[in-house]
């Protein structure tokens, strides 16, 4: 018997990486999944984004756990698309109990040509996208009237500016991820009356295609001062996606029934260093 | 199959309240327990403290889970007694993986009324006691190839200021400083160190007249009831709850102690119904 039997989770950025891992981990605990992902390019992002084939893989893996999943293509910058995805998902699976605002981009190391675009796009996706995700899905949760749990994916860059280099990608990423903490705090205050809990997770570098790609690795090699600043305290270069999923599985379960308003680093000691 | 099979956990203040709950939750997940508690009164503490009978109850409940427990009466202020109890436990149970530095006391007074004795008892137990607990445990933890996990019990009072609790707030903030230093020093050994920050918990340390009076200064001393205090506790929290249960803190401790949190270190984890961001 899993800890999330009968629950429905809405997860953004679910085609691969942390989002897919979250979908699988929550499904292991018994949850059904409403999954969305852009599955397409963003102009300032130079590494390959996810594809429909990636999402098919997420669907396969959730279904292999004998859980239901409703997956669709949607951009977190488009709140109407998110509302449609939530409406379609809840029509099949019932109201939302869990929201994971996970979708994000990292344009660091992208083309130098348009730093302004990189800043704006990362703020749109990583901050406004989180706001859109909550606003699109939380009415279903409030209406159900049985509480709920929301986890927003911030970053160590939501708690520190370490490694900042003035590029549009890095300033936008840090600003957006710090902004997510503000959203978490205001939502935790707003939604407590409905017994809906809201927390953030703050991963250090995670072994996913957003970090482990040619563009990011070249960026870190060409800017060794950035790479050095991003070392963890524990002797591990990166954490795995499932480590973030485990923290989220805890936060959304009844084991954490009175945890709200918390910034939870999963960062091998990065922020305490 | 529990998440902590084969592990051994050291829990201070284990006779009752959160400490007993931690011992039971850790044992439910498969851990054997080394338990200590003062099992006696400290003069400046205005409520009855735990007894040897309480500690025996913890022993019975852990053994009922088919786990082993080595329980000793010891004061966390007494390095020699604390170290002897821990070393004896490790000798009997074979190893040490987890530390829950939980022992703590509460007392209340306006700044000018905090006596030297109140201050010394508080800092001695709630801050120095945590230091001495971890200092005694570190050699055992370092002996492990796969590291370990230390959880220090701070408080919302380790993050916020609270009136009439200067000595308590100072000790609980100090615990956060210890946590950060321990996390930094011990990371190379894969030993993780985090703090938990409970809001009001439904235990004897809270459910007593001294606490009720503190939270209802509008009522005549000695007259505030549990319900009166509950109304005041409710206003501390964002979620509509008066207090949390010991098991809620234990669940956070279990998470932090387990491989679910294998890369979580240096973290302050409130279990506070949103109190610190209200």
Question: Any chance you could write out the topology, listing elements then pairs?
Answer:
The complex is a heterodimer of chains A (273) and B (278).
Chain A lengths: L7 E5 L4 H12 L3 E6 L14 H12 L5 E5 L5 H15 L4 E4 L13 H30 L3 E6 L14 H24 L4 E8 L10 H9 L1 H6 L11 H12 L10 E4 L7
Helix pairs in contact in A: 1-2, 1-8, 3-4, 4-5
Chain B lengths: L7 E5 L4 H12 L3 E6 L14 H13 L4 E5 L5 H15 L4 E4 L14 H27 L5 E6 L12 H21 L4 E8 L10 H7 L10 H11 L9 H12 L10 E4 L7
Largest chain interface and its two residue counts?
A: A-B, 35 and 35 residues
Number of helices of chain A: 8
**Distance N terminus to C terminus of chain A?**
39 Å
The coarse silhouette of chain A is globular
Indicate the structural class of chain B: alpha/beta
Keywords, separated by commas or semicolons:
heterodimer; A: 273 residues; alpha/beta; 7 strands; 44% helix; globular; B: 278 residues; 8 helices; 42% helix
Could you explain how this protein is built, in words?
The complex is a heterodimer of chains A (273) and B (278). Chain A is an alpha/beta fold. In chain A, 44% of the residues lie in helices and 14% in strands. Chain A has a seven-stranded parallel beta sheet with strand order 3-2-1-4-5-6-7, with helices on both faces. The radius of gyration of chain A is 17 Å and the shape is globular. By secondary structure, chain B is an alpha/beta fold. Helix content of chain B is 42%, strand content 14%. Chain B has helices spanning 17-28, 52-64, 79-93, 116-142, 166-186, 209-215, 226-236, 246-257; strands at 8-12, 32-37, 69-73, 98-101, 148-153, 191-198, 268-271. Chain B has a seven-stranded parallel beta sheet, with helices on both faces. The longest helix of chain B is centred in the middle third of the chain and has 27 residues, at 116-142. The chains are: A alpha/beta (273), B alpha/beta (278). Chain A binds chain B through residues 185, 188-189, 192-193, 195, 197, 204, 233-236, 239, 243, 246-247, 249-250, 255-262, 264-269, 271-273, and chain B through 180, 183-184, 187-188, 190, 192, 199, 238-241, 244, 248, 251-252, 254-255, 260-267, 269-274, 276-278.
């Amino acid at each position: 018997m899993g800890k999330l039997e009968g629950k429905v989770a809405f997860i953004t950025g679910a085609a691969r990486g942390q989002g897919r891992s979250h979908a699988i981990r929550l499904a292991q605990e018994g949850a059904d999944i409403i999954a969305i992902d852009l599955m397409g390019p963003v102009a300032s992002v130079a590494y390959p984004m996810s594809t429909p084939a990636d999402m098919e893989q997420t669907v396969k893996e959730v279904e292999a756990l004998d859980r239901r999943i409703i997956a669709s293509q949607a951009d977190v910058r488009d709140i109407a698309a998110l509302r449609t995805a939530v409406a379609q998902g809840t029509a099949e699976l019932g109201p939302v109990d869990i929201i994971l605002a996970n979708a994000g981009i990292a344009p660091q190391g992208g083309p130098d040509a348009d730093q302004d675009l990189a800043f704006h796009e990362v703020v749109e996706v990583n901050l406004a996208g989180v706001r859109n995700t909550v606003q699109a899905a939380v009415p279903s949760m409030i209406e159900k009237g049985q509480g709920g749990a929301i986890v927003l994916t911030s970053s160590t860059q939501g708690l520190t500016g370490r490694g900042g280099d003035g590029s549009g990608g890095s300033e936008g990423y840090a600003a957006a991820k710090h902004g997510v903490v503000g959203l978490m705090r205001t939502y935790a205050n707003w939604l407590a009356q409905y017994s809906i809990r809201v927390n953030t997770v703050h991963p250090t570098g995670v072994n996913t295609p957003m970090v482990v790609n040619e563009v990011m690795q070249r960026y870190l090699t060409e800017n060794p001062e950035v790479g050095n600043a991003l070392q963890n305290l524990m002797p591990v270069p990166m954490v795995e996606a499932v480590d973030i999923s485990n923290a989220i599985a805890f936060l959304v379960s009844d084991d954490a029934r009175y945890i709200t308003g918390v910034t939870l680093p999963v960062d091998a000691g990065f922020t305490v260093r | 199959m529990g998440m902590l099979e084969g592990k051994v956990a050291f829990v201070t203040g284990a006779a009752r309240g959160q400490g007993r709950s931690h011992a039971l939750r850790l044992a439910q997940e498969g851990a054997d327990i080394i338990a200590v508690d003062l099992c006696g009164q400290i003069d400046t503490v205005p409520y009855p403290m735990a007894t040897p009978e309480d500690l025996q109850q913890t022993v019975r409940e852990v053994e009922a889970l088919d786990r082993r427990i080595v329980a000793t009466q010891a004061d966390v202020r007494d390095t020699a007694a604390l170290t002897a109890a821990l070393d004896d436990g490790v000798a009997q149970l074979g190893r040490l993986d987890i530390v829950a530095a939980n022992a703590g006391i509460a007392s209340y007074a306006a700044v000018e009324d905090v006596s030297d004795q109140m201050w010394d008892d508080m800092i001695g137990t709630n801050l120095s006691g945590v230091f001495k607990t971890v200092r005694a445990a570190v050699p055992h933890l370092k002996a492990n190839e796969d590291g370990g996990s230390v959880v220090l019990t701070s408080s919302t009072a380790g993050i916020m200021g609270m009136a009439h609790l200067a000595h308590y707030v100072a000790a609980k903030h100090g615990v956060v400083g210890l946590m950060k230093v321990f996390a930094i020093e011990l990371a190379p050994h894969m030993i993780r160190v985090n703090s938990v920050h409970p809001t009001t918990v439904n235990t004897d340390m809270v459910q007593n007249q001294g606490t009720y009076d503190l939270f209802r200064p509008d009522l005549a001393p000695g007259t505030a009831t549990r319900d009166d205090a509950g109304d005041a506790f409710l206003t501390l929290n964002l979620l509509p709850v008066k207090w949390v249960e010991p098991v809620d803190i234990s669940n956070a401790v279990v998470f932090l102690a387990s491989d679910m949190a294998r890369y979580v270190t240096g973290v302050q984890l409130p279990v506070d119904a949103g109190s610190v961001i209200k």
